[in-house]
């Protein structure tokens, strides 16, 4: 609001108000007095502009956005620890600690005789990134094999400022109350490992609610994550009793998002010296990145399905090194876009070039 008010303008305005018969040249008493005053005035305008920016949620920095959102009972989601499956040749003690690269993991629960839930001791997405052989921090008799095989419940970084800002403004669109759709979305999205949720009322008769979730990596959730969410929201055997976060008489069932396989076929014109083997990994990455981008918008699509577009695929493939042109692109054997089921996200299938 005050960005256009400069030191030079402030100084000139003061000098213009002085009678013409008084010395106003640079270095004069009047000039020097007004110059110092103009510097202070400009600093005040800068401070006023900062106050205005920090007052309103659309321009405030993270610190003041958090203070503003607290007035609506909102705060950023905290960082969480990843939980992964560990496979061992023996049954290990709960509390056993292992290392992989620069991270440490602790056995916190038993899945089967030689499978355990391993929790990363470092919070955030970094805990999702490493699978492979584990090294015990303390000696365990008889241990010859220890490995992390899959992410069960993804760890999450602290909520990004712009994502939190969007959630703050979304809170004005609909009031979360008593098990309405906004209430379910607010509470379920706050749970660890959830990247989005769709809510269906009366899906299996009156009083039933269906929740379909995508994980925080915007992929299909593991069975462990779905079961954990079911237990928190409306435990099996006590459904409708209001034991979890679901209201009394709401019989809630949690499902994971489905995966729809998209097979590809296209004719590629290569630059001289390039072959399919040279570009295949680039093509796979381009398609996977596009599918993740689509999955980001899965929740916002609401009851509509995501659309995999041939034009988007071809645009991305044309930017790959070694590719001159792409033609005759087919998705699942047809030269047309693919509209997915509302509860599905795309995954890459076969590639034929």
Gist?
With 353 residues, the chain is of the alpha+beta class. Helices cover 30% and strands 28% of the residues.
**Spatial shape:** extended
Instruction: Assign a percent range to the helix content.
Output: 25-40%
Helix-strand pattern: HHHEEEEEEEHHEEHEEHEHEEE
Radius of gyration: 29 Å
Show unreliable segments.
none
Structural class: alpha+beta
Distance between the termini: 56 Å
Q: How many beta-strand elements?
A: 15
Task: Let me know the average pLDDT.
Answer: 91
Strand order of the largest sheet: 5-7-1-4-3-2-6
Strand content: 25-35%
Give the biggest beta sheet. Answer: 7 strands, antiparallel
> How many helices does DSSP assign?
8
Structure characterization notes:
This protein has helices spanning 7-16, 29-55, 62-70, 161-170, 181-189, 223-233, 276-296, 310-318, and strands spanning 81-88, 97-100, 103-112, 115-123, 132-133, 135-136, 146-153, 194-201, 208-215, 251-256, 258-270, 307-308, 323-331, 338-339, 344-352. It has 353 residues and is α+β, with helices and mostly antiparallel strands. It has a seven-stranded antiparallel sheet with strand order 5-7-1-4-3-2-6. The protein has a three-stranded mixed sheet with strand order 8-9-10, with helices on one face. α1 (7-16) crosses α2 and α7 packs across α8. The radius of gyration is 29 Å and the shape is extended.
């Amino acid at each position: 609001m005050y960005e256009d008010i400069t030191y030079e303008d402030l100084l000139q305005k003061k000098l213009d108000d002085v009678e013409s018969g008084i010395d106003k040249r640079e270095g004069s008493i009047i000039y020097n007095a007004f110059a110092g005053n103009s510097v202070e005035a400009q600093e005040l305008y800068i401070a006023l502009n900062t106050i205005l920016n920090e007052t309103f949620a659309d321009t405030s920095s993270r610190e003041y956005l958090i203070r503003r959102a607290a007035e609506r009972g909102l705060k950023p989601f905290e960082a969480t620890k990843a939980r992964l499956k560990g496979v061992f040749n023996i049954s290990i003690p709960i509390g056993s600690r292992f290392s992989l690269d620069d991270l440490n993991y602790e056995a916190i629960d038993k899945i089967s005789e030689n499978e355990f839930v391993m929790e990363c001791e470092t919070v955030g997405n970094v805990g999702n990134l490493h699978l492979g052989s584990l090294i015990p921090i303390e000696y365990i008799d008889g241990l010859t094999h220890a490995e992390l095989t899959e992410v069960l419940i993804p760890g999450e970084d602290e909520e990004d400022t712009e994502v939190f800002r969007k959630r703050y403004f979304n809170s004005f669109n609909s009031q979360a109350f008593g098990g309405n759709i906004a209430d379910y979305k607010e509470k379920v999205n706050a749970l660890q490992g959830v990247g989005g949720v769709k809510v269906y009322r009366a899906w299996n008769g009156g009083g039933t609610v269906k929740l379909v979730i995508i994980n925080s990596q915007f992929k299909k959730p593991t069975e462990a994550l779905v079961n954990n969410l079911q237990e928190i929201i409306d435990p099996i055997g006590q459904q409708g009793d209001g034991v979890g976060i679901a209201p009394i008489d709401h019989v809630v069932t949690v499902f994971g998002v489905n995966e729809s396989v998209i097979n590809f076929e296209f004719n590629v014109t290569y630059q001289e010296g390039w072959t399919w083997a040279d570009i295949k990994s680039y093509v796979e990455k381009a398609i996977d990145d596009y599918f993740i981008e689509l999955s980001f918008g899965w929740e916002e699509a609401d009851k509509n399905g995501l659309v995999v577009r041939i034009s988007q695929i071809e645009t991305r493939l044309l930017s790959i090194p070694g590719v001159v042109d792409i033609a005759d692109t087919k998705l699942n054997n047809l030269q047309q876009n693919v509209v997915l089921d509302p509860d599905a996200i795309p995954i890459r299938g076969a590639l034929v070039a």
